[in-house]
Specification:
Elements lengths: L6 H21 L4 H22 L15 H30 L7 H23 L4 H18 L1 H16 L7 E4 L4 E7 L3 E5 L5 E5 H4 L4 E3 L7 E10 L4 H13 L11 E7 L3 E10 L5 H18 L19 H16 L1
Antiparallel strand pairs: 1-2, 1-5, 2-3, 3-4, 6-8, 7-8
Helix pairs in contact: 1-2, 1-3, 2-3, 3-4, 8-9
């Protein structure tokens, strides 16, 4: 057995495979490019030895070595398939990093990695150990149907997460608002759910299947700035031009709002009591809306007092009596006197 011509090639392949695993583990995950290069080199060396020796790792033959060389041959084939899987997975991970894909792409990345491991496992069982692949695939199909029926909701979340990742309606760090009013910053997106950090500093966990069915607004696109509209009612005794000047002066003094594009004042309506204005301005982020609104309200109040501009009462707070005619006034006097006599 020791004179078998295939003994040395199998020993060399086993040596390269084991050393490659040790080097792969020692390099760690912080150096993915170097890790991939080393992995490809070891895999190429193992493939070269197989090729020069006339050994086919993807074919089981009756002429394969027996005795002491047999376990070495089996180990060599298993190591070759394992290194093939690792080299393929390393290439996939490096491609996604070099292509500057977002972090949410790890869902697709994990899916590809799972497919590679499954394919290599079936290849090892079929090409190395001679197991009937057709029977295994058929059995796994039945098992998959059973698990699919038992895990409908979980699978729905998984495939919805993949659809969201492919559609890219948002990325990690975006501020989104749902149709029911829930809004927050996306802090995590995994296989099952998406996590939002709300303005109240709470984390809302949304199943991907639910998130895929609701309408959402991405407040971070095309940029993070967010517009606010604030309605202010000024007494109609002032001229509209004067009102616009005072409101613009208040907006320009604010340090919490965006000055480019500049804020604007819209005169929406006028009646005998009030001039209704709408202050439109932007903030750097949806999270800055409360402090910016508070500052603008304070500045509007200060500028109105400094310029003698009076705020108008809200429509529901005043009652205007109808003008009384002479007969109505006389009747009211008679009724008042009668009431006094009584």
């Amino acid at each position: 057995m020791l004179s078998d011509p295939l003994l040395l090639p199998f020993l060399l392949i086993d040596f390269l495979g084991i050393v490659g695993i040790v080097v792969w583990l020692l390099q760690g995950r912080k150096r993915p490019t170097e890790r991939l290069v080393v992995q490809i080199l070891f895999f190429a060396g193992m493939t070269a030895v197989l090729g020069f020796s006339g050994i086919l790792p993807h074919r089981v033959s009756d002429t394969d070595p027996k005795g002491v060389v047999a376990p070495l041959a089996t180990l060599a084939r298993v190591l070759w398939w394992t290194h093939l899987a690792w080299a393929t997975i390393g290439f996939v991970r490096i491609y996604i990093v070099l292509d500057r894909r977002p972090r949410e792409a790890r869902l697709i990345q994990d899916l590809i990695v799972a497919a590679v491991y499954l394919g290599v496992t079936l290849s090892i069982m079929g090409f190395v150990f001679g197991a009937p692949i057709g029977t295994l695939v058929a059995t796994s199909g039945v098992v998959a149907i059973i698990f699919g029926l038992a895990l409908q909701n979980t699978l729905g979340d998984v495939f919805s997460g993949i659809a969201i990742t492919l559609g890219k309606p948002f990325v990690i760090g975006d501020w989104i608002q749902l149709a029911d009013g829930t809004e927050g910053r996306v802090v995590e997106n995994d296989w099952r759910s998406t996590h939002l950090l709300t303005g109240a500093h709470n984390v809302v966990v949304l199943p991907n299947s639910v998130l895929a069915k609701v309408a959402l607004t991405n407040l971070s696109r095309p940029d993070e700035t967010h517009q606010i509209a604030l309605t202010v009612r000024i007494a109609a005794a002032h001229t509209p031009q004067r009102v616009e000047e005072v409101m613009l002066a208040a907006l320009k003094e604010s340090v919490r709002i965006v000055q480019e594009p500049p804020p604007i004042v819209v005169l929406k309506a006028i009646d005998a009591v009030a001039i209704e204005t709408e202050l439109q301005f932007r903030v750097t982020s949806p999270a800055n809306r409360p402090p910016a609104r508070n500052e603008v309200i304070d500045l509007v109040h200060r500028h109105c007092e400094a310029n003698g501009v009076r705020l108008a009462m809200p429509p529901q707070s005043y009652l205007l009596p109808l003008p009384a005619t002479g007969e109505d006034a006389a009747g009211a006097t008679v009724k008042t006197r009668s009431a006094g006599a009584l």
